Fold this protein.
Amino acid sequence: MVRRQNKLSKVLLSIVMILFAIYAAFPIVWMLICSFKQNDYIFAWPPKIIDESFGLRTYVRVLTDPVKLRFFLNSYIVSAAVVVLTLIIGIMAAYAFSRFDFPLKKAVNSIIVSVQAIPQICLLIPYMGIIVALQLFNTYWALILTYLVMTLPYCILMMTGYFNTLSKELDDSVRIDGGSRFRALWGVLVPISTPALVSVGLYTFMTAWNEYLFALVLTQTTNMRTIPIGINLLITEHNYDWSMMMSMSVLGSLPILILFLFFQKYFISGMSSGAIKG
Amino acid sequence: MATVELKHISKVFSNAEKKANKNIPAEATHAVSDFNLKIADKEFVVLVGPSGCGKSTTLRMIAGLEEITDGELYIDDVQVNDMEPKDRDIAMVFQNYALYPHMTVFDNIAFPLKLRKTPKEEIKKRVEEVAQILDITEYLKRKPKKLSGGQRQRVAIGRAIVREPKVLLMDEPLSNLDAKLRNQMRAEIIALRDKINTTFVYVTHDQTEAMTLGDRIVIMKDGFIQQVASPQDAFDHPANIFVAGFIGAPAMNFFPAKLERVGDEYYVQVEKLRVKLADEKCAKLAAKNVASQDITLGVRPSHIRVDQGGDELQGTIEVSEMMGTEVHLHVKHNDNVVVIIVPVAGSYEKYSKYLKHDQKVGFSFDGEACHVFDAEGKNLEA
């Protein structure tokens, strides 16, 4: 009786999970299918998964259009810069939080945390003012600097937590062996923090890659736009180019997908085991 | 090869330091007070004491990992108070090994040499030499996580000795090992000492390690040095009750007693038992003109005899621990528990009647075995 009940609950659970999976996957599948179709066929009735327009034509159109390619280039430049700067600044800040005590440490920490709690829309106008005042409007730096504000708190908090788990004797050991604190950080702590760095790096990349609001306001000319804005630009007064939007969305999602697949193994922690007794 | 001299060294932890380091107890401010010690070239000195006594802090000050609040520190007659750890030419072995987990054993040992830009050929030669001394040659290509605790500690020692430092500091290096391995590694450290010519400063809370390893031991409590002496001297002539109770296992027994002076002779009286102190002790006390007074009497467990008949002290056996060649009796005497070591090798039957639970037992001791401490706990002979 108990066994039959167990089996029944397992079946029910599976059905519910499958329904959720379909619900979650449907937009992605729809995006994929539409990206291979021509615009006129997308809303054809009855809908077909594969019709006569099915092919790579839209992708060719995107990849041969210098304006669209520029969107991708801009996104890559901004995202890569944000990841690199976030990690460099974040790692050093986290080291300071983890290893030193200094005046107002708690206050500074609270400010960093609270930045994340403020809705981004509230920061839009102040940032706009600052960026214009710094004469950075419509430049890569406008986006890079504002994205750093979004990504750094998470990076600092995560890395501080991770460094706290690493024995201070590692730093001491490097200093006695003849190295500096800088060497201890970059030569020992950072290499053994790969799992944390990968997850922080991915989060940072995703944040910068997907950001829409600031990219829309802080850039103006088409040659400075990033992919999310580029996709939106396809919606015009007279024409919605759905197939183009979908293929750009697919191409826009690919880097994140590839990064996830590539770095998956690093999520498995344990890199630091063996450093100290445990 | 170097001398180390600590002159009036003190360490006061600031609130910031206490906050930053959770290992520092909140109430601790004076971690080390007026520490004076001169360590000779190639000497093996052991700092020993209960946790929180300031021994590790002292070691970390020698290493340069902890700032010195007051006093002067000299290595080879050069004042090093403000010198960076890397410039002091010292090496340190940590309790938790502190190996670099992403590097192989070879790279771990080679790390200090690489930082000093030693030529590659030289690095290889020296790492292999050290690996041979420590018997870890076959593990050179492994990562630390593939090693056992004992092997890891050997790698840590290898990394410390590879650049032939002036002073080798060891901070409870055996504490993380199991009892058997600890004994083995202790013997290896003694053997290692003969192979490398360097000055050792070793920190431990284990008095057995201190006794077996050190040329001299420094017994500390609450940041103050209690006694600096050779292991035998600390055992035979403890400076105060704390040292007497800390050095030696099982610990010394203490009795409230009276010291009585009759001419140049001294007697101790515990209840009905009256014992004349040995001549040598009497001479020392007489020379210091010690008067009759209430004292704390200390007697080592191995110096107490059972069943003498007469005026001996009486007690009841609470616990009897068979150790093989001897039995440790825990005897309830008034409100105290007195530990008595009874040798039983070859004569077990003779003593077997005393080894039972709840058995009444009488015990006494000779004047040679008595250590007399005044009301402040100071050894009156010292």
Observations:
- The mean pLDDT of chain B is 90.
- The first strand of chain B starts at residue 4 and ends at 12.
- The first helix of chain B runs from residue 15 to 20.
- The two ends of chain B are 33 Å apart (CA to CA).
